[in-house]
């Protein structure tokens, strides 16, 4: 980042300090904008796009920013799709990056008079139904933990996933101080906190794990709730590998099962058990309720199946006889 232009460094600081974006989001924005500036330099100087990552953006100026047009953005998105094989979701993220960045340049820094991203549209995303486990599959998945040498820890983590629907990043960020009796404080996207009630399963699993948690401490006073064998905070990658291992050991072998699929499973089970959409939004930490509504679509599919299997569905056949 030290070699990035000052206006880009300032924008990235603004993202985290003022907008409350996570470090992960900040890095994604930095990558998108750096790649875009490299692309524009390559186009202007007729450089080979195969070596685009070697192009320096240190000397990209405010005057260069003012020359950017909507057509430049379209051309870059086409390059991302055709050459870099970015899917619609990845390109949509880049559109969001551009809209945020150029809005900042115009309204906060007053560095540009016209916003080239004003009319920029995001690629249309297909509405995919979330992949999840039903109740029986969830119960079978949990049986796979019995083979783990870290049973209490792993059982506790999977219990929190399936009962609370938290994100893997949120689980990794949990500290001992996140637990207050029967309430757990979750640090969500954009550092937004939400408090969730712990049910009996979660409380029992936490109690069992906390009794042996000190076994993971290695001459350090680590505040993380879940620790590795080395006494360090568990990473997203480690937990993803663990989910795959439990999936295999349980004999379920659910295709492409990830921590995020456990979140989908929890949300679907909650909705089917009677949770209203607003409560589900609060539990999952969605800023926009339209994100939560994918679980109502799952339920609608189930309703359609039930109606189609209604015994009266074949009544028309019997009346013709």
TrEMBL record:
Entries under InterPro entries matching the protein: CB, DNA_brk_join_enz, Integrase-like_cat_sf, Integrase_catalytic, Integrase_recombinase_N, Tyrosine_recombinase_XerCD
GO molecular function: DNA binding
Highest taxon listed in the record's lineage: Bacteria
Domain Tyr recombinase: residue ranges: 128-308
Major localisation: cytoplasm
GO CC annotations on file: cytoplasm
UniProt name for this protein: Recombinase XerC
Species of the source: Kurthia sibirica
Taxon lineage: Bacteria, Bacillati, Bacillota, Bacilli, Bacillales
């Amino acid at each position: 980042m030290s070699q990035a232009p000052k206006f880009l460094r300032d924008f990235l600081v603004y993202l985290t300090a003022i907008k409350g974006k996570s470090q992960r989001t900040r890095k994604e924005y930095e990558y998108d904008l750096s790649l875009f500036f490299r692309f524009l330099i390559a186009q202007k100087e007729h450089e080979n796009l195969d070596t685009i990552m070697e192009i320096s953006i240190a000397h990209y100026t405010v005057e260069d920013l003012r020359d950017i047009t909507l057509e430049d953005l379209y051309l870059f998105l086409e390059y991302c799709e055709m050459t870099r094989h970015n899917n619609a979701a990845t390109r949509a993220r880049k559109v969001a990056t551009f809209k945020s960045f150029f809005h900042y340049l115009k309204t906060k820094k007053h560095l540009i008079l016209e916003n080239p991203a004003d009319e920029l549209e995001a690629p249309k995303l297909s509405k995919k139904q979330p992949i999840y486990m039903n109740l029986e599959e969830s119960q079978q998945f949990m049986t796979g933990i019995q083979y783990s040498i870290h049973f209490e820890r792993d059982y506790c983590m999977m219990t929190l996933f399936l009962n609370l629907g938290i994100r893997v990043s949120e689980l990794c960020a949990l500290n001992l101080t996140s637990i207050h009796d029967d309430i757990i404080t979750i640090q969500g996207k954009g550092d937004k906190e939400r408090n969730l009630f712990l049910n009996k399963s979660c409380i029992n699993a936490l109690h069992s794990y906390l009794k042996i948690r000190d076994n993971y401490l290695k001459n350090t006073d680590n505040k993380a709730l879940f620790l590795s064998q080395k006494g360090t905070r568990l990473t997203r990658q480690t937990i993803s590998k663990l989910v795959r291992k439990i999936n295999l050991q349980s004999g379920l072998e659910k295709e492409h099962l990830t921590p995020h699929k456990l979140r989908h499973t929890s949300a679907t089970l909650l909705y089917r058990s009677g949770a209203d959409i607003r409560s589900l939004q609060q539990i999952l930490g969605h800023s926009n309720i339209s994100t939560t509504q994918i679980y109502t679509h799952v339920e609608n599919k189930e309703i359609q199946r039930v109606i189609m299997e209604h015994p009266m569905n074949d009544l028309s056949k019997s009346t013709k006889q």
